[in-house]
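Researcher: Let's try something more involved. This one mixes different molecule types, so please make sure each is placed in the same coordinate frame as the others.
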Amino acid sequence: MILSNALLLAAVTAASGGQDAQQRPWNIHVEHIYTGNGRNLTKGLVVVSGGRIAAITAGADEQSDRPEDTLRAYAITPGLIDAGVRITSWESVEQSREVTPEMRVADALDPFSLDWDRQVKSGVTTVLASPVDRNVIGGLSVVVKTAGPESIAERTVKADAVLRGSMGSDPSAGNHAAFGRPTDFYSRRPTTRMGVEWEWRNAFFNTALGLNEKDPGRATLVAALQGKMPVFIQAWTTQDIRTAVFLREEVESRPEFAGAGMNTPRFVIDAAAEAWKEPQLLARSHTPVILPPFPADGRTRDGAQMAWNVAKVMKDNGIPFALSSHGSDDVDQRLAIQAGYAMSGGITFDDALAAVTSTPAKLLGVDGRVGTLEVGKDADLVLWSGEPFQPGARVLATIVDGVLRYEGWSAVQGAAVER
Amino acid sequence: MLPILLAFVAAAIPAGNPLAIRAKTAWLPGGRVLENAVVIVNDGRIVSVGANADIPEGAEVLEHDGVLTAGMIALHGATGASGETSDSTRTAMPEARIGLAVDGRASNFEALRRAGITSIVVTPDASGVTSGTSAVVRTLDGVVLRDPAHLSLVFSTAALTPNREPTSRSGAIAMLNRLFEDAHGVVADARAGKLPCLFEVREREDVIRAIAFAREHKLRGALNGAWLSGEMADAILQSKLSVIVPPLQVGTSKRVLDAMARLSQDGISFGFGLDAPDNHADAMRLTAALCVRAGMNRQLAWQGLTENAAKIAGVEARTGRIERGLDADLCLWSGDPLDLGSRAVTLVVGGVLVDVKGAADTAKESH
Amino acid sequence: MTTTMTRATYAATYAMTLCAAFLHFAPNASASDGRLAIRVGRIITNNGPDIENGTIYIEGGRIQSVGTDAGRWDAEVIDHPELVAFPGWVEAHSIRGMDRPNENIEVAPFLDVRDSIDPINFYFEDCLRQGVLAINVQQGSFCAIGGQGRVVKPFGLTIEDMTLRPSSGIKVVATRPGRSRALQVQALRRAFRDLRDHLEKLVVDKKDGKDSARREELFQGRDPDKEENKKGRPMEGDAPWKVKNFETVPRGEVDEKQSPLLRLVEGKMMAFVACDGAVSVVQALEIARENGFLANTVLVVEGDAWKAADRIAEAGVPVVLAPQLLYTERDPMTGKEIETFVPGVFREKKVRFALQSLNPSAQSLWFQAATCVGYGIPRDEAIAAATKVPADILRLGERLGTIEKGKDGNILLLSGDPLAVTTSVEYVVLDGNLVYDRSKDVRVQQVLEGLEQPNAAPAGADEASDVDPHGGSTKEGDTKSKTDKKKD
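Model: All components are placed in one shared frame. Result:
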């Protein structure tokens, strides 16, 4: 069925972006409310007040007595959450050591980067910002809103949310042996996958055995091994995914860790392109994954091959999974369209929605505030011109903490869309 | 016609033999303008300021048919210490004192004098997270007015090098935090509020980080080098930090100029940097003129070159104003100094007269 | 029978030479002489309302009826009530599918992509998989005047099998990457000046009784006694310049290196003019006017060329849009990004526009059309920009773009709405033959369903410039990298 919608609201004259943006009440009338927790409504109203969701009701659109606070669109979803975004530059990773658990990427984020605007335009309202994966253990990632005050601290949803590191070739790339050149730390850093893996084990064992008492990163490693914060490990290929899972199983089973009370780490595999090759392993070890963007020809980074049904394989095996853009801002790689690609690989709309909202919120431990459309949660909302995640639908508006941060309707004259 | 009859370049006025400058116009603190001003200088200091005042007997008289102002203060530069402002093998050396590296008689001070600058804040290079402390130096005799003047802290990517710690912004902040957590010496002074800091910034993100750092460690001081600092006027105002405007050029984008102009509108304390000797000494006055053209309050711009600059440099008790009791650091201009057609004619530095007219390179007499 | 043989041979050769993970589907051996009835749940004719539960009857490679008529009793029947029939997508311009997109010759109108197209390039396989059934292959932009393009089908063992329309147009490049505008425009003007000089010299030589042109004609292999070569004609076309007494020169004596350009000037050849920005649009239109081919010009636009949309509208030429549909620029005062949706601009200025695929696989023409819908272009116009409009631009409007009587028997059978991300191409009927069956497409199984193939194509094999099927350049590359390592 083709639904012709002359959605677009003429009534709105709200300012967007910048310092003029104000928190204000909104009444948002839509054809479809997709809440992210499975309870969807047809023809409904979402009321925003004080930066939070105040009410969600069913029922037809009625003339509002406050037209200036009224928005209309085809559909509404919670703001999208990208747990694999890269809003960071080379200056975000401290390479003078290969293991820097105490480094905080929050200190390296640029609140003025245009990447934030690009995220907002594509409907992403919360991201996990991580250091560039050049170190084995890169440091502490931070969960931040994509819009808000011009200060990372004031936008932070959860500081020091995740310990971030990498398996595979990224942390060893560019390092070299000291062939007669003056040595610097690039000739000390690992040059192979096994070197990278050794650094992980070395850091973990030193922590459990108390051999790194003076190391500034120790407290973070202890917290990670005790499961107080999740460890996000980039691993594109099967071998790296297996290495990460085996590492965790080793920590769980060795007496050194049990004795120190450090045997309950929580791992999440990021950029798990080849997760489809190891569903049993991931299911057995209860390891959630974050998937990188779907590649046109099947090949992704690190020589990994990513099948388009990877999300379905995860779903069928009961493995929690989130989708991500992995930092790409190409139009065809943004987060929303990843959910569409995952649907084309065989998962339902609701599962795809969860993979870009509630699941990453849970993985990041911020599901109390964001990730679903529920009364009392942050008013992070995306208004769509058609069925979300279809290339034929686009973001009409993004609201972050009750503030209208992006208005896309000026670009759309009318839309005909199909479910 | 300029009836100045002093042929010497720099001549000490004999002690007890006062100098009287009679100027058509004098620019006094707070934007007051005094016509037919008489300023008496004795023993290196200003002893009186008045209109049509009597000239003491035996005084040497300098008649000036132009504008008399306090000498300008450049807030950022390396004159006298070129090549000595950083140590490339050390990223953090807060105790390094650039005051000890300045050659007060260096020949390139002359260019500053010609431009009407009587003092300069010689600053450490921004190549590490901190390269030490700055010093305020007079441009004629190398007299050090204040040392240490600021502790330099670098928040721009200039502090990062790919092959030594820190390579990252996170690493640089972590280093600075370690420095302040275990504070001693000048760092402890800065932490106690005794020593202002010079926050080296470039991008807007650097400004935000510097402000957050200053708040966390309760630091005061000035932000140097951010072209768009005016776009963050609210945050800067709240932080109570001053701003040092970096040298601009003809052709600097309107966005940057508008941002600079906002500094005066929003009541932020600001002065001007020069980054001499890499920049021509006239660049500072040119920068101020460009800012005024873009809408910066004219009077505040001038204060940013003189009395407010003295405050930022921490030498307001000695220089920066035509005021009784202060050092006689003065400049005699052919006309309005914010008019680029005007030029410095004579300089008084610490009571010493310097004729800079003859040394002027290409400037024409336009008044 | 011959058809079947060819196709079988093709499949075998294909599998052997490439070890391709993809098997073309041979039609039912009990060939019903090319008679095919396709029954589907919905026919999107792209030419009026959709038909629910309809039948398309194809005979002799052409659509005979669309509606309920099942055609002849002995026709082969494809019955898929769950599927949607849709006309094939049309790629208005592509520089893929050749061994390389350009020669190192600045002015080369005598080249023909026929000699460069590689029928077993993965690109064509991808096109078929995505339902792109006509592709205008043109030379790339590293020249001033490139060779003649060709509209091909993504199926066939030889270039002749594939060809829909030879000499579809000459590539003209208004701005060449990495070269100054002035130099490029000068090169273009000189090319037409050289043509004129050549023609005028022919006239003078003829008058002087010289026979060098005739001897060159013989040398180039044309028969001077053939009727078409023997006759002279006055210069035709709209060019403001004309060569006087040109009718005295037998047409066969025009040098083969110049004759394609003469055809362009005489209005017998189209030009695909690459413009990377608004400035080059103005220059391109000027050169087209000066040489009489404006009416046959299609602008292939990139960058900020949309800023010259008024000039393009005024000239009345259609455009083929660059794959990137959003143009991004920085506001100098705020530093923020401003996005312009390029198709929207051309639509508003009433310029006919065709889309190009973002890539040959996942973001093919359907994706581009869907993106247009997302940005508010009415659905039928968005679809037309990848079907009817490019068909018209390529002068194949009579044959392609819609499902209607008399058109080529090209039908896509889709699993759902053509613009939905979840839809896939299940079957492709080309010229009345079933040539693609997704359930037998091994590469789909590999890429989409994660079944690994032992001889999978290397990544990027569909990029024309990356892979030399004969291995020549690859070897060179290997040697080079070895040398480099030694130096280290």
